[in-house]
Amino acid sequence: MFRRTFWFTTGVAAGVWATTKVNRKLRQLTPESLAAQAANKAVETGHRLKDRALDFASDVRAGMAQREAELDDALGLNAPVDQLPAPRRYTAVENRNDPKYIDTSTYSYNRNEDH
User: Lowest CB count within 10 Å: 28, 42, 84, 105, which one?
Assistant: First the structure.
């Protein structure tokens, strides 16, 4: 008698458990549930991408600051005020296209003169 009651109870429990599992799975596969799951995944992916973009931007800013410091050192911009960088050297060849070298008596500014 106890043996039959035990197996009956075990069968009922297994049936309830299986029914609950099947109903849960069916609810997960409804179109509304699938849409909600897709939306949640999209939001999570968006947050992850945003975090990675912020990490990338901070890395770029750090690299820019480091490079700017290197350039400041190379140009002598970090030197004390009483210690100025060496004066720049001027080029030995002058630019002959400079307006001060153009002969305005022979050069016409009228583009339509010959037409």
Answer: 105
